[in-house]
Amino acid sequence: MEINKIVLRKMNLELKAPFQTSFGVQKDRDFMIVELHSNNHIGYGECVATAKPLYGEETVGTVELILEEILIPTLLDNEIQHPDELNELFKPFRRNNMAKAALEGAYWDLFAKEKNISLHEALGGTKSEIEVGVSIGIQESLESLLKEVEGYVNEGYKRIKLKIEPGNDLTLLEGVRRKFPDIEMMADANSAYTLDDIELFKKMDNLNLTMIEQPLAHDDIIDHAKLQSEINSAICLDESIHSLEDAKKAIELGSCKIINLKIGRVGGLTEAKKIHDFCESKGIPVWCGGMLESGIGRAHNIAITSLPNFTLPGDTAASSRYWNEDIISPEVTVEKGIITLPNSPGIGFEPNIALMEKYTTGIKEIVSKKVFS
Ligand code: OSB
Ligand code: MG
User: Fold this and answer.
1) Parallel, antiparallel, or unpaired: how do β-strands 42-47 and 24-37 relate?
2) Is 163 known to be catalytic?
3) Which atom of ligand 1 is least distant from the CA of 298?
4) What ligand is nearest to the CA atom of residue 289?
5) Each residue's pLDDT tens digit, 138-179
6) Which residue ranges form the domains of the chain, and what is each CATH number?
7) Residues 113, 262, 273, 274: which is the catalytic one?
8) pTM for the model
9) CA-CA distance, 334 to 308, in Å (whole number)?
10) Residue with CA at minimum distance from ligand 1 atom 6
């Protein structure tokens, strides 16, 4: 496989509606698309790092630097037979997982296209369709939240996730539960609480939540284990899990009963597969989280969700939930909470080149003469 050119494309897409979490309000999405060009195909990867290091430590600026100075030269200097090898190749470089995942994801897509198979087939996926839920940001009032929830419930989403923060938590969850007694429902705190809030989480045990996602600090697994031992609701970890090693430790400590797998947060599809397999062996369900991706990142999320231990609905909602126009064709659509896996080669969605150009804010091309066997 010959890589002739690598393109780093900085992009900006405006969200249909601002998305509020405990760490801030997001109105638009700055992100980067990595393109790997061979003679015959282009592999696409999306970097989920944001403009500011609020969810994780990486930003669009740091990923550009790491890709250009470290990861791309490493890729071009080595003979690769299979995308799984990138995981080992990048391992000596600490963290920078979102940068690693973007380049590795583009390589996986290119690899699948060269082999003329779908990305989900290349990953060893076993499903032909996946179930999805939706993540709803913090709203101004219970009234507007109920309206949002009702809309998504009517669309058929399989599970509703509600963002919470101190001051916007129990009353909202109770209000939604009262109006929708039977829906699958969960809360995501994005690390906004401490063990001092233990009584609050005990009260949530009455609400039949599928799980509570990342209630405590982003870098903690000790306090989460204490909290999990005191409450009945399952804790799901998001921010705390960056690798297979992290997952092993959290599960051994009893810090969670469920893991939210995000490809970018764990450094790529290969690491995500490893965590998936380990969780499966331990009876820990996983589901695919989201980072408000464009269609390209969303396509990668759809492909990894085809693995069998993704047994809970993910956050991969339809393109129309986020964007006025997505940069892929066709857009991601959800029918009664189900996405049908595409079967064309690679990620299975074609980038819409005109829209890609329209939303590009900066572009860097790296020309390579490297020939892979
Ligand atoms: O914590 O899962 C999260 C969005 C941005 C950053 C972090 C999170 C989220 C979401 C939305 O919950 C997921 C999505 O719809 O893409
Ligand atoms: Mg989360």
Assistant:
1) antiparallel
2) yes
3) 16
4) 1
5) 999 999 999 999 999 999 999 999 999 999 999 999 999 999
6) 2-116+351-371 (3.30.390.10), 122-347 (3.20.20.120)
7) 262
8) 0.97
9) 20
10) 291
